[in-house]
Amino acid sequence: MLVTGGAGFIGANFVHLVEKQWPDCEVTVIDKLTYAGNRANLAGCRAKFVEGDITDTALVDSLVKDTDVIVHFAAESHNDNSLHDPSPFITTNIMGTFVLLEAARKHSVYLHHVSTDEVFGDLEIGAPTKFTESTAYAPSSPYSASKASSDHLVRAWARSFGLQVTVSNCSNNYGPYQHIEKFIPRQITNILSGRTPKLYGTGEQVRDWIHVEDHNLAVLEILARGRFGETYNIGADQKDINNREVIELICELMDIPGQYELVADRPGHDQRYAMDASKLRKELGWRPRYTDLRAGLIDTIAWYRENTAWWQDAKEKVESTYAAQGQ
Ligand code: NAD
Ligand code: TDX
Question: Where is the NAD(P)-binding domain (predicted)?
Fold first, then answer.
């Protein structure tokens, strides 16, 4: 198995899980080690590690030649960064996916593409609607537009060239090894480092939080029993919870109730995401293990508390970048 982006948040959790669940599977990771990638995320893993860029055609070809399946996580993944410099999002998310698809086509290798709920745009706050696999694409940010573009490429390679592919679109993940630029770990590490948690706008926006392990267990089910050419939505069916409620829960769990600050909103901020994952549940029998966000957050807070060395060096830089943006 070739795992792209395996030194990032979800990819690294995935490699740990594969090695536990499928001990006979030989894993190779290709990762560029951008600011978001960290070799330490793979400590204790047996996987072969290749530091490299998925846009490097010769390198990708040499790795794909020797693999049975590609699980494609590598991406620029942060919306806020895409608003300040979209360029690496276009290069990695679109061109990188193209390079992988061409190598997969040349060597007839199955590719699973890891994508996001953001390709569907957003939903109205308070509405009962959810995204299904057939919801029309309407991405809002350079990040989500680049992911939408990559999804289209993957499906075109299946239809035009008969490439064996599956696609998954998942909602917001949380859990260990998530970069501290992202909402939940940013607030946890703000509190652990004596800073005030920061809420964009007034925090009305709704995200459909899922624990990273549940996302990755769903990807394993798709790899094992998913149908080629199909797309599967992944989401944990959370009741709607907005960012203000999440930050208040984190503050409460970390003993600083109500002590957070309102900062500049994100331009073009998507209002609400909600995933209908009934296809995955019905076809593949997947069920989330973390059904209680509070319990998942307690575990996640404990992880960041116990692993200060993992995030401390990056904290100052992340916060000074946000401060320069008024966030
Ligand atoms: P991340 O930013 O934590 O990790 C991305 C990894 O990709 C890093 O290790 C980075 O070094 C690597 N990378 C970036 N550019 C590369 C390149 N050109 N070549 C090789 N490696 C490169 O991201 P994440 O949150 O783990 O997201 C992983 C995937 O899951 C992405 O495709 C993302 O769109 C998707 N996704 C994320 C979420 C979420 O909530 N985080 C939800 C749904 C889908
Ligand atoms: O400090 C913050 N304060 C805040 O209120 C940050 C960093 C974010 N927010 C808000 C913005 C969003 O409404 O919290 C919400 C979550 O923000 P992010 O963690 O940046 O996630 P989001 O933009 O929703 O995208 C995430 O989920 C889908 C991932 O980063 C994507 O990679 C994934 O595709």
Answer: 2-291
